[in-house]
Predict the 3D structure of the following.
Amino acid sequence: MFSKNDIEKEHETKNSQEGGSSSDQASMESLYEASLKDIKEGQIVTGKIVGFTEKEVIIDVGYKSEGLVPVYEFSDPAAIQIGNEIEVFIESKENDEGMVVVSKQKADRLKGWENIVNNRKEGDVVKARVMKRVKGGMMVEVEGVECFLPASLSTLKNAVGTGHLMGQQIDVRILKINIPRKNIVVSRKDVLEEEKKKAKEGVLEKITKGSMAKGIVKNITDFGAFVDLGENTTGLLHITDMSWSRISHPSEMVAVGDEIEVMILDFNKDNMRISLGLKQKSPNPWLDIDSKYPSSKRVKGKVVNIVPYGAFVELEKGIEGLIHISEMSWTKKYANPNELLAIGDVVETVILTVDKQNHKIALGIKQLEQDPWLKVEEKYVEAAVVKGKVRNLTDYGAFIELEEGIDGLIHISDMSWTKRIAHPKDLLKKGQKIEAVVLFSDSKNRKISLGLKQLTANPWDELVNKYKTGAEYEVKVKNIAKDGVYFDIEEDLEGYVPATDTAAFKIDDLLKVKVVKAEPSQKRILCEVVA
């Protein structure tokens, strides 16, 4: 094929040698026109590289003039060679400078688009080259076509950034092909998740229950530690599987970054969950616990933890027992175990119960001594007069310490035969030493009932005879209640006049009253006002 310049040069040579004519020139132009390709705008044609500069590549497409393609449209500029054939897109047959306007990029994209539409479908995994960042994600090239990779679909959750992907080739899944808009959306996340799943499945195929595996602790929570087993596979080491001993937090056993060997306890291929164990590497010390720690056996151990309800004692590695606060003393009431024990103390205890299934041992300290309440009924017999100290006062009575840890109760109703006591503090003081009479003692329920009034005989038989019906007395009003007025008919003995209307009475009023009857149960003499 001849170019127009070649034909014109040939024509000038012939004219100079033979003398040319206008008809010859016309024939030469016809020959040139006949040699041109019939190209159309919007068409993809094959052209030949006939030259190149630092910025442009000259393409002969067989038309009147060559076309220029920017070097940046070539994926590998170093591979550009004269004589190579490439396909270009005809944008315009002629620009202002008389040259054909062509584009290699558009040709590649158009061919790529047709190839994708004809040979690819949504869901296919294809190779893509990351080109540039755009708002909301990145543009990637798939078989010459620019596709959109949303940022949310570019990587897995909690993964590092995507800056390192620029210019790299990655695998993506075609999510959506919009033919009218010539738009394609792809996802890298789907491919990564599938790769991760396959890697995990590969690991799960290799592991078996009871086998050992090495991993690195990558995260610690309150309930356990997550261990990276490699190949995008993570297992959970639960806090209950870390030690045969009781621990409060996983950080007591492992730290982030630790390389540990664990046992595979269980795995589920459906949800990709792997359960790991650390304590299972050593024999279970609870297997022969019944024979090793029988009930009532005395043992020594170290206090390893104190809580409001008791203290945990390590009897041996992996074996702990609890001394409940109620098992620390027969007689003393501790508000908190640290009043008696401290972490690190070595204490002697007694085995109370062993729960092999739930890995629990109940211990006691008070059982090292005899329960003082066992002989209470022998020591504090009914009607015996005893001595004690007022330890505490309540609304309903007074607790009297008879000996360390042994208290008796004087109920408010047993403090006086005749005087109505509103509160024990009206009669007794804390720390006061007194005598009292034992009313009854109960070692099983740990109770001793005492009486103060029983130190003297019941005076009511005499009082009934003394205050006969109809006897008159002059008294002074001491108290006015809703249902009547009260007065002292003698020391520590009240008289009472019922009244629906107490407004007529005042404190210290002198009244003349007449005895109606004695009321021992109410500790008073019922009277009426003499008119």
Remarks:
- Confidence is low (pLDDT under 50) at residues 1-11.
- The chain is about 15% helix and 40% strand.
- The domain at 36-107 is CATH 2.40.50.140 (OB fold (Dihydrolipoamide Acetyltransferase, E2P)).
